[in-house]
Amino acid sequence: MVKICCIGAGYVGGPTMAVIALKCPDIEVVVVDIFEPRIIAWNSDHLPIYEPGLDDVVKQCRGENLFFSKDVEKHVAEADIVFVSVNTPTKTQGLGAGKAADLTYWESAARMIADVSKSDKIVVEKSTVPVKTAEAIEKILTHNSKGINFQILSNPEFLAEGTAIQDLFKPDRVLIGGRETPEGQKAIQALKDVYAHWVPVDRIICTNLWSAELSKLAANAFLAQRISSVNAMSALCEATGADVSQVSHAIGKDTRIGPKFLNASVGFGGSCFQKDILNLVYICECNGLPEVASYWKQVVQVNEYQKTRFVNRMVSSMFNTVSGKKIAILGFAFKKDTGDTRETPAIGVCQGLLGDKAILSIYDPQVSQEQIQRDLSMHKSELDRPPHLQPASPTAIKQVSCVWDAYEAAKGAHGICILTEWDEFKTLDYQKIYDDMQKPAFVFDGRNVVDVDKLRQIGFIVYSTGKPL
Length: 469
Ligand code: NAD
Ligand code: UGA
Hints:
single chain; six-stranded parallel sheet
């Protein structure tokens, strides 16, 4: 029986390995992590991450051929294929701070693999890493290898949170990069055989290592660039009376452009887009390509501009001050169908409003009060650390309360601010909400989920992203 071990039981390691276990009953899969509470949660009825369909998959194979363990070294030593899916956040200190990827966790995982291995292994980069990381990892592994043969593969993950299970079941493609030597090609084939259990072979793309590593950064940069492009258009729509939804629809009908990823918003969030583009910018700078670096940097800058613009528009429309005013925040996660708040635009928007002394009542169906308080009170560099290195409990911010209902959040509020596109926000009883609010009652829709005409008929003053007033 082939044995797989995955280091890192996070948003990628957990779901990806659960799907491999489900689709490959002949393979034993063990997911390991140094953060014990996460492993305990993976072994319980309350999985550590919220992802539609994940519970079902885990229930079907946990204890059969899928295991979660904190016994990292033992399972790495026993594995034939070791996936490394640890976090690779942006460096906060030292050379490349604010841009380069922090490979501390990756390096320590590689050193541990070298230390504990007693048999040949395929080591798979699942984390998103800078191009050429495999070369550095190879050096670490072979330097300490005691004659053991390690083959490094790059197999970046393209799942999106909220749709991870369906993305894993039916990926647009699986990408595997390896060395162009006979041993490298053999390793590629071994990993290809795993995916071929359920992915059509014409969707498994094999490349050299550097193309695979760079393709991951490029894919995220292209996706984020579409959002910044449409968000830049949304500013122009607000200034001219055009409607960004109509513009997106019209341009998306061009088959060369396509309709996806053209929803204007308060800005993109999530743990990866910003970090991966900054990483790309840094790589371009290091390779003497400042023009290319500044091209990609604009994608992040427009995203920052979009968040600031949203807050400024809110404050200026509410008579230039929100001081002492209750504002209902609907949605805190970085997108719907996840409880993940990493880099969520809600953090910047809430901090902007708190800076103007607003009082916030926050509701999100999947994010806990504790998480919201952490996100709003902790420094970004602390939030970027893996869970086991984060401070225990930060001091709660008094002007922020978290409630478990949108109606409760809006009671007595001057304005509602929609920051995540949860489906339930489309079907709220807005008449009831209006009746319980201060007047004039404002709605600021950062995700374009509400029916603007209907809300205006009720009496709301509605500001939607990229839409005429
Ligand atoms: P995560 O923070 O959810 O999980 C990483 C886990 O690795 C943590 O639980 C941490 O405790 C563990 N870890 C760190 N160092 C370890 C070590 N030495 N030994 C054992 N465990 C260790 O991160 P994630 O969202 O799963 O992302 C992982 C990687 O995948 C990142 O490089 C990210 O860019 C990439 N990625 C993420 C997504 C996504 O949707 N989140 C999608 C594609 C790619
Ligand atoms: C993204 C990519 O879609 C995945 O392919 C990739 O694997 C992953 O990053 C990663 O490397 O981490 P994810 O961040 O989970 O996935 O979610 P997306 O659906 O891409 O959304 C990212 C952000 O963009 C969200 O805040 C979302 O609300 C926003 N968005 C998305 C828009 O504002 N407009 C859109 O049209 C689409």
